[in-house]
Structures are given as C-alpha cells and as structure tokens.
C-alpha cells in the first residue's frame, strides 16, 4: 500500500534495477513516499520489487530521460525532496559496442534532469550515481579518493565522468544541491546476471542443483573492490541530508580477484573448489565430485579491461553513519543463498 501520509517524496530513477530497488526499500522503511521511474520496454522488470515485497508500496511513473519535456513535467509536478539518478547504461563492456547509446543515456539523461531541477524545482536535492570507471587508467597502490585525477578509458567511463562534472558545474554555477556518488563495484542478490559475481552465483546454484555444463568466464585474475550494494544504498539518503553537497567515493578499500570470489561462492554452495591450468586454460573443479564448475572463454576476456582500483571510503566514514561495507565472503554467501532459494522455488529466470 502506498504511504499517503508521507511528508517527504523521493523520485528514484532506475527503480527496477539493483540499486533502485534496494534504495526504495530503505526509503520506505524510513517513511518516505517513493516514486519510481522506469522506462517502458524492459522485460520482466519488476522481479526485484516483487522479491523485496515493495511492489505495492511504490508509485511508478514511465519516464524516458532522453525526453526533456517528460523529465520536466514529472519533476515540476512532483517537486520531490530527493532525486536519485540510478538509471542509465551500466555494463562497461557494452559501451564499446554502443558508445553513442551510452553517452546519450548517461550524459544527456543527467543534463535533462539537471535542467528540469534548475528550472522548476530548485530545492530538490540530487544524488547521481557515478562510477569508479572515471579513474580508468590510474594505477595506484593507494586507495583512490574524491581528489584523485580522472582518466576514463572506455565510453562508459567518459559518459559517467562527463555527467559527474556536469553535476559539479550545476552545483557551483547555479547553487543546486547536487552530488555524485563515485560508486565502486557493488554486488548482492539483486545484481543482474551479466555482471561477474551474479553470473557466478547463478551458475553455481544451477550446477549444485542440476549439474550440467561449466560456466564460462573471462579473466580469473581480474580484481575489483566489491562492496555490498545494500550497504551503499542505505547511506545514500544520508549524504543528501548533509549541510553541504559534495561528492563521495563508495568503496571498501579492498581488492579481490574473480578467482577469490568464485572460490568463496563455490564453498558457500558446498563445493570444494580447486583451480588448475593458467591464463586462458584455467579451470575450476569441485574436488569431491570432479565436476567442472568454470572454465575460461576468450569471449569473456576483455582486451581493454580497466585495471584494478580500490577506493577510499574515508570521507563517507567521516561524514555519515556508514561503518564500512560487508566482506566479500558475506556478499558471496548472500548471493548463493538467494540463487539456491530461487532455484528451489522455480524462480530462475531473473
Ligand atoms: P565492471 O563489472 O565492468 O567492473 O563494472 P563486471 O562484473 O562486469 O566485471 C568485473 C570484472 O570481472 C571480470 N570478468 C568478467 N566480467 C563479466 N561481466 N563476465 C565474465 O564472465 C567475467 N570474467 C571476468 C571483468 O573483466 C572485470 O574485470 C561494474 C558495473 O556495475 C558498472 O556499472 C560500475 O560502474 C562499475 O562496476 C564500477
């Protein structure tokens, strides 16, 4: 049931995605009215809202961020206290094949939103989800923070950086309360299956319950700073309530490899993972049954992969109640539990 008594309204753009659905859940718990923006045409788009049990509690509006009039009408009518811009293209590798689509979604979508806020709802506070991909080619042993120079190396990173800098310009030039969360990788049961952690948990649950062919992965040695998505979405409303708007890195400060994540997830499902071979010939097997769990396929090997970056959550820790994200072993366990459960109830098409 929609909360008609709520005094504060949040517009969550991208509510059907991982972050949008998790954020909506925490906003509803805090008594907010949540209006969710989605685009027409996304298949099976409300499974997360259903699983989280909030489908009936949010109001949904059809909004295409590419259409300035549509954005303007909704923002003007709603006059939301907060807007969370979590929509757009999110799969880095696709951005090489869809550079224009990526730029239009991520840059022009943000521009249209900023213009709508500036001209019709200037008290609205905006959270824009940027990405650690803005750091691109930077290689550093130190954790990267809000002051680290930006050097994107793919169309996705460029689109996020352009939008992030636009947010900064509107903050400084027009005095809008607008900020960017520079989001390092964040995972959990609501992750889409094209991202590596969910690909792993989905396939391990399949292999555990039904056996079958091994999953194919790219580079086992690729590393990322993986946090738990719900830890990050929980703190987003708080950063918008601070006195002054500024950008925040959302990260853990720790790196793990795909191999490590695969190993933790395989253990969580009850396998005994062992690795054999090197590079393109790497495989992961279950020692007790001999079942092959994963093998490397060139198809998923990225020629231009972004180097590993770890981020510093120091500013977030200092300015908010955020106390750090859960460990990658907790993330793997939560994801495995969710995928085993889905398979048990026959809900595997998500
Ligand atoms: P990423 O996430 O590109 O970092 O972007 P992804 O999970 O796709 O890749 C993480 C790392 O794993 C390696 N990898 C594989 N990746 C996928 N998808 N599939 C595979 O089979 C595979 N095997 C190895 C990749 O090469 C990479 O190194 C995510 C997204 O959420 C972005 O939207 C966000 O901005 C950034 O994180 C921060």
Give your account of this protein's structure.
- By secondary structure, the protein is of the alpha/beta class.
- The protein has 11 helices and 15 strands.
- It has a 7-stranded parallel beta sheet with strand order 3-2-1-4-5-6-11, sandwiched between helices.
- Strand 13 (273-276) and strand 14 form a beta hairpin.
- Helix 5 runs parallel beside helix 6 (155-174) and helix 7 crosses helix 11 (328-344).
- The longest helix is centred in the N-terminal third of the chain and has 22 residues, at 99-120.
- It is globular and about 60 Å long.
- The structure holds guanosine-5'-diphosphate-rhamnose.
- The site of guanosine-5'-diphosphate-rhamnose has 21 residues, from helix 7.
- Residues 11-319 form the NAD(P)-binding domain.
- Its cofactor is NADP(+).
- Pfam families: GDP_Man_Dehyd.
